[in-house]
Amino acid sequence: MATCVKVFLRQKPISKGRISLYLDYYPAIRNPHTGRLSRREFLGFYIYAQPKNSVERDYNETMLNKGELIRCRRQESVINLEFGFIDRHQQQADFLAYFKKMCEHKYQKWDIVYQHFYNFVKGKCSFGEVTVELCKKFRDHLLQAHNLRLKHRKLSHNSVAGYFSTFRGLLKIAYRDKLLKENINDYLDKIEWEDVKKEFLTQDELIILAATPCKIDVLRRASLFSCLTGIRISDIENLTWENIRIAPDMGPCVRIRTQKTQTETTLPIGYDALELCGERNEGKVFKGLKRSMINVPLKQWIKASGIKKHITFHCFRHTYATLQLAADTDIYTVSKMLTHKNVTTTQIYAELVSSKKRETVNKIRLK
């Protein structure tokens, strides 16, 4: 038979002739969030140890009555196994520490959003301070913020949209884990994405780029690998030889959990893509590949090829999607290969394949 927890109103002398009031739970109760045993709950107010006049005596009587009322409510809550009253300890917990820990299991964008939020709150923020008003101010802050690395450059609108979407995702998880009292996202307006031109390489340009010497061989191989597979830079960076296997159809494939969407997937790859991986070894496939390479060194390689387009590493993913659709690969297959959760995301690439649009106008004729 379980022991009934009793709640007592206690007093503790503090400075300046005051007495702090607190509740004493016996036996101790277990915090449902942390699993720790709690014995005391300080009420946050005090009485005078030696009241000097009727005002102070009346004040003491009021505070003692208030303390007794809280004690009765806590006793009722304990009996009903309701422990919401200890949530205030969670409200004092470090929200930034929670955010940082979440970043360990996410992709690079989470680290960037964390740093922007850290700068915004000046390195200090508890769960209790995460309010609708604070989040709206952070939204406004992002709209005016500059690149963390290139201080002179403001964040692009779509970068801000992505960062705020990630932050809202964090709020959703924290609410799901019962660390926030309300679903703040219900009161936040998302930042709409702006339509931008998605650059990609044509088949001829891809051939030209593949034939152009690159000063950094691992950058060349990783870039062309992305063109042939559609795999993101974050997943190529972490790709190991253990991820590359032989599928049941005896063809090579990549078995990964994508860093961005945490999707577990098996992607068949061609022999040209497998050849770019080099000789089978242990550890990472593209050893020595660094994010810094996809900036200036990549631009230099693109320029050397004579291609005039503004091509970033992510454009290689666009290249894979558009060339597959142009080659009559059905959109659902392309969507699965890109690990899109919704085929409507893949339909954006169909808009880029102008050659297919031109073919459709000649399919209906009057003569």
What shape does the CA trace take?
elongated
Helix-strand pattern, N to C?
EEEHHHHHHHHHEEEHHHHHH
The structure class reads alpha+beta
Mean pLDDT: 86
Distance, first to last CA: 91 Å
Uncertain segments? none
- State which percent range the strand residues make up: 5-15%
Give the total of beta strands. Answer: 6
The protein's oligomeric status is single chain
Helicity range? 40-55%
Largest sheet: 3 strands, antiparallel
Compute the CA-based radius of gyration: 30 Å
Number of helices: 15
Question: Can you list the strand order of the major beta sheet?
Answer: 1-2-3
Describe this structure in words.
The protein contains 15 helices and 6 strands. The chain has 367 residues and is an alpha+beta fold. The strands form 2 sheets. It has a 3-stranded antiparallel sheet, with helices on one face. A 3-stranded antiparallel sheet has the order 4-5-6, with no helix packed on it. Strand 4 (244-246) and strand 5 (252-257) form a beta hairpin. The radius of gyration is 30 Å and the shape is elongated.
Topology:
Blueprint: E1 6-14, E2 18-30, E3 37-48, H1 54-79, H2 87-91, H3 95-103, H4 108-120, H5 132-144, H6 157-176, H7 203-211, H8 217-229, H9 233-237, E4 244-246, E5 252-257, E6 264-268, H10 271-276, H11 296-305, H12 315-326, H13 331-337, H14 343-350, H15 354-361
Antiparallel strand pairs: 1-2, 2-3, 4-5, 5-6
Helix pairs in contact: 3-4, 4-6, 8-12, 13-14
